[in-house]
Design brief:
638 residues, mainly alpha, single chain, 0% strand, membrane
């Protein structure tokens, strides 16, 4: 598929394949755009049969975007249930706004109630996050369009059409095909591994003063491709016979990543050790060959994991009015939107909704006040530049329905293609699309777009202000919190391994391993705000060194877990190994109570070559490596 894209679209296809080798961004953008087009066409057909009220068309388009982006459940049935609740919550929100339209103060209070609830219920998982987003966006569009009671029937029809079309496109036209997606991801891993090898060779020939930026960038690209491939593997194969192949493949991908990280670390050594680098290179190529061989031999049943019932994530325990993270976030966002509402109303009594929309969205997927600041500035900048281009395009294309519609669709596609890359770029193209749509429906004026910019700036300022003043959370504090959770999760995994070595198979070891991986991902996300978490330097900075240690710890916990069922270990050996693992778990318990994990950064591990390259499967050597990693953290943390 990647090769076909390159052949079919020449330079553009090569660029897309290089930047998005798994085509995840391309699929998301295509799915979102086709959903909007599909819902638009379905509403047009409904209009031919029985015209709907104008507000119904606006609700249908807005909910089509939410249907494509917000519903993230795994499995067709689970997504259908989520869409039902989303539709119900969205219609209820519109109904209440419609009844309250004559009373502006009541509408404002309702908005704040919806915002508080939408943020708070995120604690219950992806389904309720989607429901909250639906309720908020439906309240937003209802407040903007001000439907009448007579419009509610048509709005209900539009919501149903939007949900059905989005569900059909997601599950029939553009469904997830894990086996095919995995093949594409493996090709990407191989391609990026070769790119890393080329950069390493160039760095070796350029001497000690060569720039290390390309090397770090190549390693990061490889890591991203590996994470995509690992994400295409199910939590557990539906067929017990295919589960060993699935597990072995996941472990092999982790091997590729860790060996690549060791090889990159060796390139930073002073002085460099060519003999050691050659041994790591040999291991790297051997691991890649094993990865490709295992991928070719993977049974299709290994990807049929949806039939396996997954454990529902535990709902976080409520910890108090001030200390509960979900409640703090809900209070922050509600206060920010209230401030934005006041400022927006002072500026315009009819367009203040843009201000609260911005204040709400700048708190989405943020870990700290630094993240909020960056997101708010990105949204304001994207809106500013988008308005300049939007005014120019809408003026030039005035009256040209076909070209304006085509460019609006292209803008929507490009916006969501860049959603995971740049919030500012996404906002720019969304603003251009809105400008063109305003022109199509006959309400475009430059003053209107400038008013939207002003409302956006008000919302961004409100969000940034609240994030710094009310329950402020520094980037370093957020990273430390995530790190503490990571070490506690690792301790639980080691406790389960020790119990299993003694024959006490009470915990789901695989679920614990996945939980450790998710916890590590949380650390990476939280560490983004500490300077540059993946610093482009000759020598990796403290954040990168700490993250490397954490990833290595998770990897060797996984490898050690594979020895639980090893028949070659005698009873006395298993008991001694269990004692060593329990000792490690106790150290992790102490480590999980510290802070300052990213202040200095533990040095890159000088791990025993035997443990990494020749005797990877010897349990005691793995425990020794884990001990060195944990002791390194204990020597640096506070």
């Amino acid at each position: 598929m990647v090769k076909g894209l390159r052949r079919g679209f020449g330079g553009l296809g090569a660029m897309i394949a290089a930047k998005d080798p798994s085509l995840a961004r391309l699929r998301m953008a295509l799915r979102t755009t086709l959903t909007v087009i599909g819902v638009g066409l379905a509403l047009a057909l409904a209009h031919l049969v029985h015209p709907l009220p104008f507000t119904a068309y606006g609700v249908g388009i807005v909910t089509s975007l939410q249907g494509a982006l917000a519903v993230r459940d795994i499995g067709t049935r689970q997504r259908a249930v989520t869409r039902f609740w989303c539709g119900l919550a969205g219609f209820a929100a519109i109904l209440i706004v419609t009844l309250l339209v004559p009373f502006l103060a009541a509408v404002e209070i309702w908005f704040l109630v919806v915002i508080f609830a939408a943020v708070f219920i995120r604690r219950f998982g992806v389904r309720w996050n989607a429901v909250g987003m639906y309720a908020f966006m439906c309240s937003f569009i209802a407040g903007y369009l001000k439907p009448e009671v007579a419009d509610l029937g048509g709005i209900a029809v539009a919501i149903v059409i939007s949900g059905v079309v989005a569900h059909f496109l997601r599950n029939t036209i553009l469904p997830e095909r894990r086996s095919k997606d995995f093949e594409i991801a493996i090709i990407a891993v191989g391609s990026r591994a070769r790119a890393l090898s080329r950069v390493l060779a160039q760095a070796a020939g350029a001497g000690p003063n060569t720039s290390r930026e390309p090397l770090i960038a190549a390693e990061n690209d490889l890591r991203d491709a590996i994470l995509v491939a690992d994400g295409d593997l199910p939590v557990r194969a539906a067929s017990p016979a295919a589960e060993p192949a699935r597990r072995a493949m996941a472990e092999c991908l982790m091997d590729v990543q860790v060996v690549a990280e060791i090889r990159t670390a060796a390139a930073f050594a002073v002085p460099r050790d060519p003999a050691f680098e050659a041994r790591v290179d040999a291991r790297f190529h051997e691991t890649l060959g094993r990865m490709h061989r295992m991928a070719r031999e993977m049974p299709k049943e290994a990807f049929d994991g949806e039939a396996v019932p997954l454990q529902r994530p535990a709902v976080p325990q409520f910890t108090g009015l001030v200390s509960d993270p979900a409640l703090r976030s809900a209070m922050q966002v509600t206060l920010a939107t209230a401030i934005a509402m006041v400022g927006g109303l002072l500026l315009s009594p009819t367009r203040w909704f843009w201000a609260i929309l911005t204040a709400f969205l700048v708190f989405t997927n943020v870990q700290s006040r630094g993240d909020t600041l960056f997101r708010g500035l990105s949204r304001a900048l994207g809106t500013l530049v988008g308005i300049v281009f939007g005014i120019a395009l809408a003026t030039l294309l005035a009256g040209d329905v076909v070209l304006s519609s085509a460019l609006a669709i292209v803008s929507i596609f490009v916006a969501f293609y860049f959603l995971m890359v740049s919030y500012a770029v996404m906002t720019f193209f969304v603003t251009v699309a809105i400008s063109l749509i305003y022109g199509l429906i006959g309400v475009f004026t430059p003053d209107l777009l400038i008013l939207r910019l002003e409302e956006t700036v008000i919302g961004a300022i409100a969000g940034i202000f609240v994030s710094f003043v009310v329950f402020p959370r520094s980037a370093r504090g957020a990273a430390d919190d995530a790190a503490r959770d990571y070490f506690r999760t690792a301790r639980v995994s080691l406790d389960a391994i020790a119990a299993a070595l003694r024959g006490e198979h009470s915990a789901d070891k695989l679920a614990l391993e996945r939980a450790l991986d998710r916890s590590y991902d949380g650390v990476v996300m939280a560490a983004r705000g500490i300077g540059s978490p993946w610093q482009m330097q000759r020598r990796p900075g403290p954040v990168r060194r700490t993250l490397f240690r954490m990833r290595a710890l998770a990897h060797y916990v996984h490898v050690l877990g594979g020895h639980v069922t090893q028949d070659g270990l005698a009873g006395a050996d298993r008991e001694a190994l269990a004692g060593d693992v329990e000792s490690l778990a106790e150290k992790l318990e102490r480590l999980g109570q510290r802070s300052g994990y990213f202040d200095k950064g533990v040095e890159l591990p000088a791990m025993a070559e035997d443990a990494n390259l020749t005797n990877r499967d010897e349990p005691r050597l793995i425990v020794g490596v884990l001990k060195r990693i944990v002791d390194g953290f204990l020597s640096e943390g506070r």
